[in-house]
Design brief:
The structure holds two protein chains of two kinds. In chain A, 0% of the residues lie in helices and 56% in strands. By secondary structure, chain A is mostly beta strands. The mean pLDDT of chain A is 91. Chain B starts with a strand and ends with a strand. The chains are: A mainly beta, B mainly beta.
Chain lengths: 115, 111
């Protein structure tokens, strides 16, 4: 199984809503990532979890809250988002630890619209 | 600050043409250079390059890395309409699990 599964595929939310994005992989990967991608732009790194610990937070606003309940799951909790947060949110995983393990496997993303 | 630059940003070719996409990087603690193809949503992996001068090939696609001059190229021969996509170059760092993407090259192959 070389798949990273993200749910939901599409999400529309108001600025006062609370919602969560979910990501799952069963490849035994120990690094998991959240990227944000605006239209016609490259993916921008948000968070990295390595061995279930948050290792990188790219100065992301606190209205985005990541969670890694176990090595296969990654969540992104959303609260009080702004319209400019509308984007494609991509989850990825890799084997972790560098040294040739940096090949990322991406999910299909959640297309988020904030009204 | 770490930086990955790609050129051209956009390219339109006819089927059967050969294209060369460029990627240069300035990244501390550089480990490897990765190429991805993004058609609709999920970027799909093409190549990972860690050593200079060794060409990697997959069908009509090939790529090579020059660690002295800090660049990589992706070649696509005999292009097909199915090659139309955004091609992303990314640099991975050794010290931790961080992969930095370039802006991408949008390739359109017209019949």
């Amino acid at each position: 199984d070389t798949e990273v599964t993200q749910t939901p595929k599409h999400l529309v939310m108001g600025m006062t809503n609370k919602k969560s994005l979910k990501c799952e992989q069963h490849m035994g990967h120990r690094a998991m990532y959240w990227y944000k991608q605006k239209a016609k732009k490259p993916p921008e790194l948000m968070f990295v979890y390595s061995y279930e610990k948050l290792s990188i937070n790219e100065s992301v606003p606190s209205r985005f809250s990541p969670e890694c309940p176990n090595s296969s799951l990654l969540n992104l909790h959303l609260h009080a988002l702004q319209p400019e947060d509308s984007a494609l949110y991509l989850c990825a995983s890799s084997q972790a630890g560098g040294g040739g393990n940096e090949k990322l496997f991406f999910g299909s993303g959640t297309q988020l619209s904030v009204l | 600050e770490d930086k990955v630059v790609q050129s051209p940003l956009s390219l339109v070719v006819h089927e059967g043409d050969t294209v060369t996409l460029n990627c240069s990087y300035e990244v501390t603690n550089f480990r490897s250079l990765l190429w991805y193809k993004q058609e609709k949503k999920a970027p799909t992996f093409l190549f990972m390059l860690t050593s200079s001068g060794i060409e990697k090939k997959s069908g009509r696609l090939s790529s090579i890395l020059d660690k002295k001059e800090l660049f990589s190229i992706l070649n696509i021969t005999a292009t097909q309409t199915g090659d139309s996509a955004i091609y992303l170059c990314a640099a991975a760092k050794t010290s931790y699990d961080k992969v930095i993407f370039g802006p991408g090259t949008s390739l359109s192959v017209i019949p």
